[in-house]
Amino acid sequence: FVTHDQEEAMEVADRVVVMNQGKIEQQGAPSEVYDHPATPFVLQFLGNVNLFARGSETDYVRPHEIDIVAVPEPDTWSVTVGQMLTVGPNTRIEFKRDDDGSFVDVELTRQDFLATRERLGLVTGARVFLKPRHITRFAA
Questions:
Q1: Which residues contact 132 (CB under 8 A, 6 or more apart)?
Q2: ∠ at Cα 8 (58, 104), nearest 5°?
Q3: What pLDDT was estimated at residue 48?
Q4: So what's the pLDDT on residue 1?
Q5: Which of 16, 46, 69, 140 has an alpha carbon within 20 to 30 A of 114's alpha carbon?
Q6: Claim: this prediction has a pTM higher than 0.70
Q7: Given 1.10.357.10, 1.10.287.130, 3.20.20.190, 2.40.50.100, which CATH number is that of 50-139?
Q8: Tens of pLDDT along 21-46?
Q9: Residues 13 and 32: beta-carbon distance below 8 Å
């Protein structure tokens, strides 16, 4: 059946087809399309994503695939805590990267947010580090 509701399609379908301007961008099992998007369009079509230009490439990181840590580790970004908004069971936190001033959105469950806030003293203006668990990279 045909739907324009991404969430519904991912929940009920055995196979999904993502189309863009009448052309197929990707088709396959919902988990395959979500975990291994073929194009930037597919990745962005299936939910929120942070974009970071890196010369001839762009890195894409989903907000729920980022950890907040207290000390720098390899491949972490130094950031400053901005707005924090809890709606229902989820919390969205906006951070500002110290290196280039770009903004990074992180999404946590309310329970994880409360634990992280307690553990790190997470308040607006605090400096912490973000560690992406998964980066998808495409040519720019």
A1: 61, 65, 66, 67, 75
A2: 30
A3: 95
A4: 66
A5: 46
A6: yes
A7: 2.40.50.100
A8: 999 999 999 999 999 999 999 999 99
A9: no
